[in-house]
Amino acid sequence: MTLSVKRSISEIASLPEPVTIVPQIPTHRLYKRIRRNACKSNGTLTSILAYVNMLEDTTSNEALQILLKITDSMHFDESEFPEAIRKLVEHFQREPESAVRVKILSLFADLATETTIDGQQLIDEVIKLLKVEKSAKVISQGLIVLEKIGKSFTPSVAYMNQMVFFAKVKLFSPSHNVQRHAILLLGVFVLVSDAEKESLELIGKYTDSPDARVRAQAFRSMLTLGERGVQLPPALYPRACASLTDDYECVRREALNMVFELGVRHPEEMIKVQDSEQEVRLIDDAFGKVCSAICDLSMNIRTLAAELLGGMTMVSDEFLHQTLDKKLMSNMRKKRSLHERSAAHFASGEWSSGKKWADDAPKEVISADSVSLMASGACGALVQGLEDEFLEVRTASVNSMCKLALKNSLFAVTSLDFLVDMFNDEIEEVRLRAIYSLTAISRHIILREDQLETMLSSLEDYSVEVREGLHLMLGACKVSTKACLMLVVQKVLDVLLKYPEDRLSTFGCMQRVGQKHPEICMSITPLLLQDHPFFDSAERDVEDPAYVCVLIMLFNAAQHLPAMLSLFPETTIKHYAYLRDTMPNFVPRLAVGGDTKELNLVGSTGSRQFLETLLSNIQRAYSAPQARQALLKAAQDDLDRLAEIDPAFSGTANFTSVFFGAQLQMEQLQLAATGHSIKAPVKECLLQLIKKCLMLQNLFSNLTIDDQLLVKQMCLRASALNLVLIVKDRSQSALGPCQLLLHIASDTSSFLQENTLLIADTFTSAILSKLASVGDPKPGRVYREILPIVQTAAPVVIPQINTNIKMCKARIIEPTESSYSADNVIKVTAGLIAAVPFVAELENLQQSQRQDLRLKIKYPDQNVHIIVPRKRDLKKVMTEQGESESQWRLRTKVLLSHGIWTEASTVEITICLSVKPNNELELCKPVKVHFAPKPVKRGL
């Protein structure tokens, strides 16, 4: 795409993402007009036929360069495609160089994936060319191209059969590459009914191919067929097991996947043990085979085997527990009765000669040569994985142990000691996985004192994530005795003195410990509160974090055991009232004096009814502009307050409030477009409107299609107003706003074409119709066409109530304004750097928005620095149920630096989303820290 088009797209970010419009306008029409104008000015060819015609009378090297240019462009008039394809086919047939023919086939695949070219025509042409092709390299590329073309659209059964028949023919090629890609094509396109009859068996024969790549692809294609719904028969199991000892890693990997898949699909199928008449379940034997792969020479195979073990949850208990014991259990061997042993001895014809001591002793006493039902490699397989030298294998083993323990409580108890041992691993990631795994299986286990000592020793880890993970784990687990609980409390409080920044995490840990151990907490309450039965104790400092931790634990225990309240001294009751007001998220409501009733907001009733009443009142006032505007202004304050007091309706209330704010700005600007004067400056109003449109587009998720349509129509109105007012102002170029409007209109039209049930409002329909009829979309011409529509536009439709809307927002935990107040100034030599720890929690941040996260630093001289945080500093918040889906934590350091100041001043730090260059959306209020760069001290 040319530079002018890229510039217009970057300018588009100033408004909400386009999403709505009338299905009358072709999606690509406006784009092509912009592109055509840009191409004329740059002299660039825009016709694919112009490129293809250049292939005539050229050498192979020149033809290759032209084909590369076509691939780089990929924006052509689609009406020229049939003729261009015909000429490319002709050049393919006369081209002597195989590399050029490969490139032509590759170009067909690019056209199929990036344009709307007819894929069935391409399939016919490619198969026709490959039927007479002799080069194995070209045929192999042709099979790859057929796969890409087939995946770019949904081919009919006839075309799928055509590709499958061609692939079966090419299976007999002497080239391993051709065979491999033919098998790949069969796995993707063969019909399910045909695969179960003959194709699966045909592909299975190539697992014995002399080439390792073909063997691996055969297994991979069978697995692909299984994903498509083909029933993989247990008869494939012996073939897969035989390939587990293949010399090539790629074959062993696919065979291992096949063993796992067959074991999971047919767990109760009985198979015979090798060299024995005994039968075992298929899932048990497959589990043993996967366990054996943990001893593979390749790290990748060991990692895969460790990962697959976690998915085999239907394995028998004896096989499962064997993975934690390196000694083969006696009950895993086949035993014969005395009669069977005597009969076998008599049949052998051998008698004791008396020359060797005890040569006629019972066999089970002197030897264990009976048949093993489990491969010896399965013994201690998970232990082997936990002791592996590579962290990938150890991490996968911990994850699999956690998955198996979640399904088997007895295994969870057995694996506890092994997971605790992993707390001492040298790699932080492995320690974290062990901590989170133990947290996940906490409901199955009760910690002993010796296990607690190992866990608590890790609390002094230098990594804050490990310490917070241990706080989470200690809060999730249960301990067995009073001594254990005292050990936990004492260690947590000791570590808090060493790491005071862990205050909030420690509070949460003690809160959950109190909730899970109310009876034990009651028995140690006098000891923790230092309450003497006869003498009054000195009042403790309620600002002491250690004392606050103890109170949080006891208050949460008292919530489940109200009898504890009688053990609290009078000073503790007073401290409860203070803590209940200052940190209500950690201190529960207790029946301590006064009214114990708690006000509960029910979002499904009260808040929804209020919102419905508010919207209906605004709807009734739509015919009166002044009343409507007054109601909209008042509604914004009410909605902002509703978002604060009712978290369940926070996203919905914020979305409606921002929408109303954008509507008010738009009505003011509409008056300016008709020639009336308004109170606020036009440029300022435009900037506010643009910001609100960006917020609607980027900060809210879970929007319905109707909500998206409203946002798109708001964008279109804003871009139209932007163009009209800029042309009227005549102080800046209108080319960018014009291209912005064309882009949004095209995308909105595309959105409406995809969602045919949606109906655009009159303004949107009129704008799209006018833009579709404009032959030369220059700013002046577009301005004259849309001006009457903009001036007479009706008010925007009110959004419907959608309680699923979530708003992306942040909360800065550190630094706080109290921690860096005027009494605690950050002092640094001017020109040098001060690193300020920064911790923030983000809610409802989309995965695609992670790269747009920014830190914004504003100095008193109005200089603004935008910092891109490191990706590794942003991680999902861990909970007892696993990773949170919508909560993230950003933990980094903000670097402050400046010239000399005469006195300390405040620096504002906030977190925002960069949705457009030089345009960031703040996710929370900035925190102010006092910063004082001092002059350099010079010696004598």
UniProtKB/TrEMBL annotation:
One of its GO terms (biological process) is snRNA processing. Residues 812-936 form the Integrator complex subunit 4/Protein SIEL C-terminal Ig-like domain. Keywords: Nucleus. This is Integrator complex subunit 4. The keyword Nucleus applies. It holds the Pfam family INTS4_8HBD. It is found in: Nucleus.
